[in-house]
Specification:
alpha+beta, Chloramphenicol Acetyltransferase, 6-stranded mixed β-sheet, acyltransferase
Length: 415
């Protein structure tokens, strides 16, 4: 990816367009452990515009209106005496940035690289900012010379999860196209997720992720798995084994195998695949459609390297499928699972965290200029963090890749 330059035109604080009730809102136990910012880039080519206004003006106005319904995003965090966080709905506002790039969208290619130039497309809060001074949401609209633009979103994960951000973006995009309010009413009600739920959602899988270890340099890799291949595997498994597997299970198994093989992990060791699952429908009663808080469970599939690589694809598929089933069943039955002994002393090379961004509703975000043609993470650049980077893989779609799923991941440079 070639470097490009972005000029900031304006940075302002955007409060809700109507006064919001002052309130102190509690976070759930799951919200309280997701204390980090998530950065997302949404790319628009601008060719399907149905509104005449400039993108930055349209989105800024929609932001001020949607914050009336999502007032926590305009508030600030506060520390409680017990160490938990709460949200003060102060109406101070979210950050909005308008910017202009000196190139066209082709410079971004397919957003396949975690390039340092992309950081210009996100307004990031300095890492040393006091938690009570954090802006919980920032939106940056960067226009490119071709008429396309990028919306850079940075949100604090304690306020919402990926599905929750999808609801927020859906509401904001509906308002930008003329709606009076979001079609799905936002629901806070974090007491619906009880403190004890954290145990049954298996967040211990995150807790056992080891500290960064230094090893050889890694490089970014972009892999495409075509739907034709996925459907072929589905047919074969049904014909040969009478087993039905989902698209996610097949892609996850292929990624797990490829990544394990590429890192040349000793056959005597174990490897772990971690991924989040939306648990909204597993609650009793199910969480309402408008609930935008964190409501995920953490699944962890584990196997011995030799057994995984020497066995058929079916082995990895069954392990992943059983892991998903167990998380759901154990949560519903309130059966507490303890961390496996296989988790002990697991190195970074042996752990992969798989994120699936395809079905969160982000691609369908239309501010009046058509749906996003691409969505990608924007990772903060941290020096010497290749050992952490190597643990993550991302599944995503793209307008340039309608017939398959793209996986972004890190591989050893020596491959």
């Amino acid at each position: 990816m070639d470097k490009f330059h972005v000029n900031m035109i304006e940075r302002v604080k955007v409060p809700p367009c109507l006064p919001s009730p002052k309130a102190i809102l509690q976070l759930s136990s799951v919200d309280n452990i997701t204390r980090c910012f998530v950065n997302v880039l949404l790319l628009y080519d601008g060719v399907s515009a149905t509104v005449s206004a400039h993108p930055a003006k349209t989105i800024r106005e929609a932001l001020s209106k949607v914050l009336v319904y999502y007032s926590p995003f305009a508030g600030r965090l506060r520390n409680r005496e017990n160490g938990n966080l709460e949200v003060e709905c102060s109406g101070e506002g979210a950050v909005f940035v308008e910017a202009m790039a000196d190139n066209d969208l082709t410079v971004l290619q397919d957003l396949d690289e975690f390039n340092s130039s992309l950081q210009q497309l996100i307004f990031s809060v300095p890492m040393d900012t006091n938690i009570e001074d954090l802006h919980l949401l920032s939106v940056q609209v960067t226009s490119f010379t071709c008429g396309g633009f990028v919306v850079g979103i940075s949100f604090y994960h304690s306020i919402c999860d990926g599905k929750g951000l999808g609801l927020f973006l859906k509401g904001m995009s509906e308002i930008s196209r003329g709606a009076f309010k979001p079609s799905i009413e936002p629901i806070w009600n974090r007491e619906m997720v009880k403190p004890e739920d954290l145990m049954y959602l298996q967040f211990y899988h995150i807790e056992v992720i080891p500290r960064p270890l230094k090893f050889e340099k890694t490089v970014q890799a972009s892999i495409v798995i075509h739907f034709e291949t996925i459907n072929c595997i589905k047919r074969c498994m049904m014909e040969e084994c009478k087993e039905k597997f989902s698209t996610f299970e097949i892609v996850a198994a292929l990624v797990w195998l490829a990544r394990t093989k590429s890192f040349q992990i000793p056959h005597s060791e174990n490897v772990k695949l971690i991924f989040a699952m939306d648990m909204r429908t597993s609650f009793d009663p199910p969480l309402p459609k408008g609930y935008y808080g964190n409501a995920v469970g953490i699944a962890g599939a584990i196997d011995n390297v030799k057994d995984l690589l020497s066995g058929p694809l079916l082995r990895a598929l069954i392990i992943i499928q059983k892991t998903i089933f167990s998380l759901n069943e154990n949560f519903i039955s309130r059966k507490l699972m303890k961390p496996s002994t296989l988790d002990v002393n697991m190195k970074n090379e042996n752990v992969i965290v798989l994120a699936d961004w395809r079905n969160l509703g982000w691609y369908e975000t239309d501010f009046g200029f058509g749906n996003a043609v691409n969505v990608s993470p924007m990772k903060e650049q941290v020096e010497n963090d290749s050992s952490v980077q190597s643990m993550f893989a991302l599944l995503r779609s793209s307008k340039n890749m309608p017939n398959g799923i793209k996986i972004l991941m890190f591989m050893p440079a020596s491959m």
